[in-house]
Amino acid sequence: MPNLLQVEVVAAEGKVWEGQAVSLIARTTEGDIGILADHEPFMAALVPSAVQVTTPEGIDEIIAVSDGFISVFRNRVSLLSSFAELAQEISVEQARVTVANLHERIDSSEATTDEAREYNRALAQLRAAGQYQAKMKGQSYSEITPQPAKIAPGD
């Protein structure tokens, strides 16, 4: 059996997912990155998105992350985020309402830092839920959510 990745996704509330994987796809500030076994050591900042973890059984676990970091070292992948949620547990309607309620404040740059974080969390949820629903239907996923709100460093 080829080498596997040991993956751990941790949010502020605790561990969201842990297990072995053959691959992982995450979105960083530099773009999407795919991780396979024996990947070189790596660390990057995450952006609000859906992380896809493919298990040895061929199951794609899809997890919404709002921000944070990904690190890869010796086949161990750690994703640390202030918020993370399994796609199948997401309330799509609640995430849509949050985005709709905050969109105008984000666009006009009137949103507080907390509102921007809430908006980004809801975008990540919509992306993860959309990707999960498309996979369940055997369809490809096209991302159509708005861009995340920018949060100034230190906020």
UniProtKB/TrEMBL annotation:
Q: Which residues form the ATP synthase F1 complex delta/epsilon subunit N-terminal domain?
A: 5-82
Q: Name one GO cellular component term.
A: plasma membrane
Q: Does the keyword Cell membrane apply?
A: yes
Q: What does this protein do?
A: Produces ATP from ADP in the presence of a proton gradient across the membrane.
Can you say where in the cell this protein is located? Cell membrane
At the top level, the lineage of the source is Bacteria
Q: Which residues form a coiled coil?
A: 92-129
Where does it primarily localize? membrane
**Ranges where the record places region Disordered:** 136-155
* Keyword tags: ATP synthesis, Cell membrane, CF(1), Coiled coil, Hydrogen ion transport, Hydrolase, Ion transport, Membrane, Transport
The family annotation for this protein states: Belongs to the ATPase epsilon chain family.
Would the keyword Membrane turn up in this protein's UniProt record? yes
Q: How does it assemble?
A: F-type ATPases have 2 components, CF(1) - the catalytic core - and CF(0) - the membrane proton channel. CF(1) has five subunits: alpha(3), beta(3), gamma(1), delta(1), epsilon(1). CF(0) has three main subunits: a, b and c.
Q: Which Pfam families does the UniProt entry name for this protein?
A: ATP-synt_DE_N
Q: Which InterPro entries match?
A: ATP_synth_F1_dsu/esu, ATP_synth_F1_dsu/esu_N, ATPsynth_dsu/esu_N
What is the recorded membrane topology of this protein? Peripheral membrane protein
What GO molecular-function term can you cite, just one? Answer: proton-transporting ATP synthase activity, rotational mechanism
> Which named protein is this?
ATP synthase epsilon chain
